[in-house]
Amino acid sequence: MSTPNLSIRDLQVSIEDKQILKGVNLSVNGGEIHAIMGPNGTGKSTLASALMGHPKYEVTSGSVTINGEDLLEMEVDERARAGLFLAMQYPSEVSGVTNSDFLRSAINAKRGEGNEISLMKFIREMDKQMEVLEMDESFATRYLNEGFSGGEKKRNEILQMMMLKPTFSILDEIDSGLDIDALKIVAAGVNEMRSPDRGVIIITHYQRLLNYIKPDFVHVFMQGKIVKSGGPELAERLEQEGYDWVKEELGIVDETVGHRV
Amino acid sequence: MSVFSREQITQLSQSQNEPKWALEKRLEAFSAIDSLPLPKLEKTNIDRWNFSEFQLYQASEKFEQAEELPDAVSRLILEESNVLVQKNDAAVYQTEKALDQGVIFTSLQTAYKQHETLLKKYLFRQDTTDRVAAIHQAFTQGGAFIYVPRNVSIKLPLQAVFWLDGKNAGMFPHVLIVAEENSRVEIVTNFLSTSSDAAVSNSVIEAFVGHGAKVQVATVSHFGNTVVDVMNRFATVGRDGDMEWIVADLSDGRIISKSTTNLKETGGHVDVKSVAFGAGEMRSNITSEILHFGTHTTSDIQARSVMKDKATSIINSITKIEKGASKSDGQQTGKVLMLDPEARGDANPILLIDENDVTAGHAASVGRIDPLTLFYLMSRGISKEEASKLIIRGFLDTIIADIPSAPLRESIHETIEGKFTS
Ligand SMILES: Nc1ncnc2c1ncn2[C@@H]1O[C@H](COP(=O)(O)OP(=O)(O)OP(=O)(O)O)[C@@H](O)[C@H]1O
Ligand SMILES: [Mg+2]
User: What interface predicted TM-score (ipTM) does this complex get?
Assistant: First the structure.
């Protein structure tokens, strides 16, 4: 099998007629970890949501391919089955649907009819991954995200990723709200997934996470696009000096998007 | 009601060998039918519903074995339960399992012969205040009598299946439950139709919950779209008694479904768990009413409806705390989930409180599937259709999951599952 690839070319996205993404270019290959950093309100989550096919976001131009296939032509569920995964910044709470029923449906959706995972195998797999993430077994039978704490929701997103084993994962602020121990556990989960067959995009505000998950590339997001790229040293400099030097270098006054039309 | 005569009512009563007082109750109700108004229902127009056109006699064959019953009926029978099956006007099958000492579980007709004093004490003691209730009392046929003596706990559920079949069939079962002090009983009733003809079911379930007794009554209705389905449930709960109603309205025709629970003494408790799933042009008006009279009485109504196609569901939750019912607590939640543009729903929360020293709360909502929830589930590879099903099942499961009996839960699930595709 050739190296997996996710290519984003000149992606422009609007929400309610307000343009948020203004030409994003990024190519991620299997085996690579890309970190996207950037101030609040610059469009990072918008990029993640638009790639997944969030109903509110409208792609106005550009293209995205996953392993050569047109991602933007696909429905949300097809995108997932094509190998894309988004660990959301604010995942929904779904009353009455247990975590394990939900996960099993998701796994079986990917495996297809007639090829469903056996209940035993599923339970074994779920137990194993929950152990890696140090999640109490009661989370299997609790309703999906309902009443979960912020940190528990994040862990549950990573649990889903580990169970579904997607080709490309986008982790949107998976570290926010996590205490230091939880951060290490979640990072261990992501690292366990690391392989030449999989690529990861990590959206974060903090270098701290990147100490545990070493990125290959770091991108700075401002005004709805990537304005600067580099290696791990770029994240370290941002952590120490903030974003002012980047803005100065590029002559940017207001780094956010969508406030002035 | 000009189609029927007093003579026919008298004949009906005599053919069942009823005592004279029972005939009098019938005639009293019969003569009131034309002068009484239809029940007043919030936001549901029932003027043109058929309550009074049906055939009086339909002799049905008896069944010796459960295996001989049609699959639609036999599959409802819970494993190990004691079962009574009524087809249209009469009992056609009953299991012969031995019951605990003093426990009575028979058709009402048999009960008239063997337990007349008990019946006389409890049966038809309420005034009929509307036409539909009067029709029920005048034409009552079959039903069941359940009596649980003091301190007796029945481990296995008692089950009654009411089966409507044939053109213009009418079914008027009356289920009377008397649970004496500190007794325990679980009763499951199923209502279904097996033909697609116009028909009427007008049933009453009455429970008398004694001091410290615990009674659970489930009603699972699954009539076709040509049936007018009226069910009135009453419970009177004594000191520290505990009543639980489980109501599954899964019929597709016209539905009036109401429960009224009277917490008349200190410490009584009632739970109402009500779910509905409507398809096609189903119209339903579902009311849960609680009357708190005793002090320290508590109640909780949980009602949820899912409406697809052009179905309509009105959920009324009424909690009335009377003066003097201090330290009482009444909670209620009513929610409607509409799946299609032409589905309709309404949730009416009503709290009527005449006492200061109480707590009460309500929540009501009417809505559609949240697109963000759908997006979330689909983002894990689940198709839109499957994701919607998960959300809908989950919406009802928050109530169904609390039903203690696993076989009953499964039975309700199965019926709902069948309605997704109908
Ligand atoms: N659903 C929405 N409705 C209206 N505006 C939106 C919506 N989603 C995003 N926006 C706007 O788009 C802009 C970019 O938001 P986005 O969430 O992508 O930023 P971000 O870079 O992820 O910020 P943060 O670091 O705070 O998470 C913001 O101004 C935001 O208010
Ligand atoms: Mg964000």
Answer: 0.96
